[in-house]
Specification:
alpha/beta; Rossmann fold; five-stranded parallel β-sheet; two-stranded antiparallel ribbon; 6 helices; 9 strands
């Protein structure tokens, strides 16, 4: 058996404008899974033959990202989720679960700017109110940088925006996801619609 190593702005609802020794190793990035094929005794690492090793099983995003890096068949778009609240990032990831996107995360504005430049995501979901930088500040810097100015951005917030904030979003043509207006199922549908609108999903 041969094994291959795989090492205007619109507010939703409102318009505002093979290894030897009888083993096959499957490698995904730094994670290695080993399936024993012939040994009758536990190997030296303590793994029971015929069962997965105790290494952490990579998630869907890790597998897609590994294939993306290695030029595999997947063309999954990358989405960057930016929120300084762990629960907020988790919820946005659940809204993206049924899409084809690979999701990466940033827990603040400065980290978001770094990841946007280095990863060049296909879209960014950006929370408005964060401790280190507001989403509007991040948006301004993204649009001022030639390396990131063309990345579609969706601003997400559970709070009302001021007229000045809405005006800024209208200038950049940035849609807004009002998180408190939707049930979870409806929010997932709205996220998909915004991805289609941005040209990320079909």
């Amino acid at each position: 058996m041969a094994g291959q190593a795989v090492g205007g702005a619109a507010i939703a609802g409102q318009n505002v404008g093979g290894a030897g020794g009888g083993r096959v190793a499957f490698v995904v990035g730094p994670v290695e899974l080993e399936a024993g094929l012939a040994d009758d005794d536990p190997d030296r690492s303590g793994n029971v033959p015929g069962k997965l090793s105790q290494a952490a099983v990579p998630g869907r995003d890790a597998l897609l990202e590994a294939l993306r890096r290695l030029g595999g068949s997947t063309t999954a778009p990358r989405v960057l989720v930016v929120d300084d609240d762990d629960v907020g990032r988790y919820l946005m990831k659940t809204f993206l679960r049924d899409t084809s996107c690979v999701v990466s995360e940033a827990s603040g504005g400065r980290e978001a700017l770094e990841l946007a430049r280095s990863q060049q995501p296909d879209a960014i979901f950006l929370d408005v109110y964060m401790a280190d930088m507001s989403g509007l500040e991040v948006l301004s810097q993204l649009k001022a940088d030639p390396a990131t100015q063309d990345i579609p951005v969706v601003l997400s917030t559970a709070k009302s925006l001021s007229p000045d904030e809405l005006s800024q979003l209208e200038r950049h043509g940035v849609p807004v996801l009002l998180k408190d207006r939707f049930s979870r199922a409806d929010a997932a549908s709205e996220v998909h619609r915004l991805l289609v609108q941005s040209g990320v999903e079909t």
